[in-house]
Design goal:
This protein has 280 residues and is an alpha/beta fold. It is built from six helices and twelve strands. The protein has helices at 23-34, 48-51, 70-83, 102-108, 205-218, 256-279; strands at 7-11, 39-43, 57-60, 87-88, 132-136, 146-148, 162-166, 172-179, 182-189, 199-200, 224-231, 237-243. Strands 10-9-8-11-12 form a five-stranded antiparallel β-sheet. The radius of gyration is 19 Å and the shape is globular.
């Protein structure tokens, strides 16, 4: 008898060598829970375009930086949009899934983000700093990230798609995790030199208002998002990234109750996304 469960193609790179973390463990544990609610198959991101027509939706999780397979990702994205394939997160995200140009837009809008420029003539508008961070617009997981002295900025190949930001002597980094528009939990790295050693963080009302500013700006009705921020020396939070394609969740670092609540929220979100898309 055919199953009544939605069929989900879960996209992950189980062999991706993440620094200081094991992405595969998270996806193995998460899919074990999701199978209770969906008929689930896992595939590598390079196989998603060829397989997706046999499923009700594609869920992109720990698929690794797109920069590693940019051409294949662009083909998948174009094919999914042309066929009306249900992709979770939806492909209309305005954050990292579209590249990091949004940091320029947010800077121009005066929102609390690390000031960002992508042209030599605009770097003079950045706050003075002893060093600057340079990263590719399509980067992730610190791929291509460099630290340069101020006098080196004038010689950068801006035409190759790079961003420049002042290096902030932040007190710590903190990440806020959301399913749809609902806050789930927060984690932070107390030691700036050990960014991957995260512990639970209890956000204040002001912290959540900050994070929701960017969730609201992104306007994704469904999906998992991570708002990465740093605590500046003056105590203010500044956005580092809005990860809306395949944010690593660090679910192994939260307690069982929080993890169960996240899984329940994701099941409801994915299920609602599939049913809502099918009804249109």
């Amino acid at each position: 008898m055919p199953s009544a469960k939605p069929r989900i193609l879960y996209v992950t790179d189980l062999a991706y060598p993440a620094r200081g973390r094991r992405y595969c463990d998270e996806d193995i544990a998460l899919t074990a829970r999701l199978r209770e609610h969906f008929d689930l198959a896992l595939c590598h991101p390079l196989d998603a375009a060829a397989l997706m027509d046999s499923f009700d939706a594609v869920v992109i999780r720990n698929s690794g930086p797109v920069l590693n397979y940019q051409e294949a990702y662009e083909e998948f994205r174009a094919t999914a949009l042309a066929r009306g394939t249900r992709v979770y997160n939806p492909l209309n995200g305005r954050g990292d899934m579209a590249g990091k140009d949004y940091l320029l837009e947010l800077t121009a809008a005066g929102l609390p983000v690390i000031p960002t420029a992508d042209r030599a003539e605009d770097t003079g508008r950045l706050p003075a700093a002893d060093a600057y961070i340079v990263k590719p617009k399509l980067g992730a997981d610190s791929l291509g990230l460099r630290t340069l002295a101020p006098e080196e900025l004038a010689t950068l190949p801006y035409e190759e798609g790079i961003l420049v930001q002042p290096r902030i002597p932040f007190r710590y980094e903190v990440s806020f995790y959301f399913v749809d528009a609902a806050f789930q939990y927060a984690l932070y790295a107390p030691d700036p030199d050990r960014r991957w050693e995260l512990v639970p963080y209890e956000p204040t009302a002001a912290d959540l208002e900050f994070a929701r500013t960017f969730i609201d700006w992104n306007t994704l009705a469904h999906g998992i998002q991570r708002v990465d921020a740093c605590r500046a020396p003056d105590g203010a939070l500044l956005l580092v990234e809005l990860e809306d394609l395949n944010p690593y969740l660090s679910l192994d670092l939260v307690d069982a109750q929080t993890r169960d609540a996240f899984v329940a929220a994701m099941v409801e979100s994915v299920g609602g996304f599939v049913e809502g898309s099918a009804a249109r």
